[in-house]
Amino acid sequence: MTGTVLVIDDEVDVQTYLATLFQKEGLTVETAGDGEEGFARAQAVKPDLIFLDILMPRKTGIMLYRRLKTDPLLGSVPVIILTGLSQYRTFFAQDFEHVAHPEAFVEKPPRPDELLELVRRFVPTVQ
Predict the structure, then answer these.
(1) Over 60: is that where the pLDDT of 52 sits?
(2) Residue 82 — φ and ψ, nearest 5°?
(3) Is the dihedral of CA 60, 37, 103, 115 positive or negative?
(4) What is the spatial distance between Cα 15 and Cα 20, in angstroms, rounded to a whole number?
(5) Could you tell me which of 83, 73, 76, 74 has the C-alpha nearest to residue 110?
(6) What is the DSSP string of 62-120?
(7) Strand, coil or helix: what is 29?
(8) pTM score
(9) Do residues 73 and 58 make contact, with C-beta atoms less than 8 angstroms apart?
(10) How many other C-beta atoms can be found within 10 angstroms of the C-beta atom of residue 64?
């Protein structure tokens, strides 16, 4: 596989887990620990896919998601919401009213096969 995935999550264990999983598949992985850092990394590397946590310091995932989807350079990058919150779709439905909905929601802890299937679906260079 080739391509770049950005993981934005304040939990270092989640960053490490996803980075290891994706790097083993040949992907380049960038990480960020909060929304501000995540937006800066996204601007710097323009990833093929973003995995985004919702509850984070300095800028929540929802705030960052809106910013990403309205940015002229980053708006087309697919975003997978990764969250530990059950009922996340209902709870956050109103937050996606004025922007495109995320490509997928994944509940923590994620299954490796589910994550890799999403990468294959949304990163065009991945086989």
Answers:
(1) yes
(2) -115, 115
(3) negative
(4) 8
(5) 83
(6) HHHHHHHHHSTTTTTS-EEEEES-TTHHHHHGGGGTTSPPPSEEEESSPPHHHHHHHHH
(7) strand
(8) 0.89
(9) no
(10) 26
CA pair distance 105, 87, nearest whole angstrom: 11
Amino acid letter, 86: S
What distance separates the 2 farthest-apart alpha carbons in the chain? 37
CB atoms within 10 A of CB 101: 16
Q: What is the CATH number of domain 4-121?
A: 3.40.50.2300
Domain ranges of the chain: 4-121
Other C-beta atoms lying within 10 Å of the C-beta of residue 118: 20
- What confidence tens digit (pLDDT) does each residue in 10-34 have? 999 999 999 999 999 999 999 999 9
Question: Tokens representing 28?
Answer: 């380049």
Amino acid, single-letter form, for residue 85: L
- In the chain, the amino acid numbered 57 is P
pLDDT digits over 94-122, tens only?
A: 555 666 778 888 888 889 999 999 999 99
